[in-house]
Each structure stands twice: as C-alpha cells, then as structure tokens.
Fold these 2 entries.
Entry 1:
Amino acid sequence: MVAVVWMALARADWPRLYCAAAGASLAIALIASCAAYGIWQEWWLGTLAISLFLVLVMARVECRPSRPG
C-alpha cells in the first residue's frame, strides 16, 4: 500500500521539492509506525495529518497558474 502512494507521488504534477517533502513525510511516518507503539496515540496521528495537509496545500498553491497583471 505504501508503494502505491510512493508511485502516485512519482506521477504527481507537483514541483520536485514538494514531492520530495511528501515522500520524506511518508518515509518518516512508515518508520515511526513500524518502530513505535506511540504512533497510534491521537497527538501523533494529528501531527501526521497536519503535516500531510500542509504539504498538499503548498503543492496546490505552487501549481496554481499565476494571474496576469
């Protein structure tokens, strides 16, 4: 399932910097979820959700066409 997400990042029409940030966030989340019991605490899940949201917002803002003028 993680490989599917990484492949989707490779096909995303985002700047390379944001794809790298999303991939790194995914790698960190995967390592933490495999190595720590604490990943299932609410504050950890909230932190991961907020970081994913911020990466997606930054990528969408960067890919938006600029307005003329």
Entry 2:
Amino acid sequence: MQLLKARFENGLEVTFDVNEAARQKAIVPVTLQVLIENAIKHNITQKSHPLHIRIFNSGDYLEVENTMQKKKVIEASNGQGLENLKNLYTYLSVKNVWYSTMRNYLP
C-alpha cells in the first residue's frame, strides 16, 4: 500500500475496516493485491477524482469495494483477472465469491 500511495498520492484512498476476529482468519495469498491492482487498472486515479477502495468484513466474508471511474482505454488486459480469482476460490472454499462496484461510495 505504501508503494501505491507513493505512486498515486491523493489519487488513491484505501480504507481498511476489518475487525480483530476477521484479521485472525486466512485468505489466499495475494488476493488483496490482485483486487486492488484490478481496481487501479480499470479506474481513473486522479487527485481531483480519487479512486476509493474499501476493505471490510461482513459476517464470514471479506469485502473489497471500489468506486467506479472507468478508464476509457485500459492497458493490456485479457479480462480474466477476477474470473481467475473466483475460479481459484471454488477449489478452496464452498462459499461463493462475488464482486461489486460502489457507485455512490463516499468515505
């Protein structure tokens, strides 16, 4: 997160709101990195319109949400990032993986 904040400065705001019980649980390595990088890849990150990413727990789930500020042109992408992550979790958990975009999120 420090490297991303150094790169995007005020164009990126990440909020962690995960309680202590949820912090004791495990997730697949680099899951958060993939989700955060995916949000950055597909959305505008500008000081005038910062990308907001919120990471929080809700029941047994860890949720990662971001504002939608779609880029007009996206760097090389095969469009499989989230789908690959979802498929990986089907082998490791009986719980469904889902993702959403916050449209009116304000920190």
